Amino acid sequence: MDRTTLFIELYAGRERLRAALASLPEPAMLDRIDDEWTRKDVIAHIGAWEHRLVDLIAALRRGGEPDEAYETDELNARLYAADRDRSTADVLSRETADWDRFVEAVESLTDEELFDGRHFAWTQGDPLVEWVTANANEHIDEHIEQLTRPARVPRRPEPAGTVIG
């Protein structure tokens, strides 16, 4: 993979996410898609991982490593707990901001940082580009079906005082 191919794939994944969201009326963001999560929670989850990758890039460039060492399921549960009461408007706005920061961070990486698996010891020989795609277009693709499937149970109400519009 080269830089051009990377950005083509990243933006293609982003476009798939936009298309999935465009197909949904805003109230459907609060439909449950499983026993616990709503579509809004899926978007918050995607944004949280975009945000984490920006923080990871910054830490690696400083010569550090990620601050937290949680298993993926535990981390996802923590992220869900932190975000579940945010409004739909806030989740959508923050995810867009996280995506913008993500793109800026990836654009700032050198080819060596992106494609040389030896550049950052923390990646244990894997090129950082694999972490980038796993937390962007591939991650979106993992969750597209959740966004587009029929609602499983009645929607969860917005937090008190929330105005959608």
Strand content: under 5%
Rg over CA atoms: 17 Å
Question: Portion of residues in helices?
Answer: 55-70%
Low-confidence stretches: none
Can you walk through the features of this model?
With 165 residues, the protein is mostly helical. 61% of the residues lie in helices and 0% in strands. The protein is built from seven helices and no strands. α1 (3-22) packs parallel to α7 (137-148), α2 packs across α3 and α2 (39-61) packs parallel to α4 (88-108). The chain is globular. The N and C termini lie far apart (41 Å). The model has no long low-confidence stretch (mean pLDDT 90).
Short description:
By secondary structure, the chain is mostly helical. It contains seven helices and no strands.
How is the topology of this model organized?
Elements: H1 3-22, H2 39-61, H3 72-83, H4 88-108, H5 111-115, H6 128-134, H7 137-148
Helix pairs in contact: 1-7, 2-3, 2-4
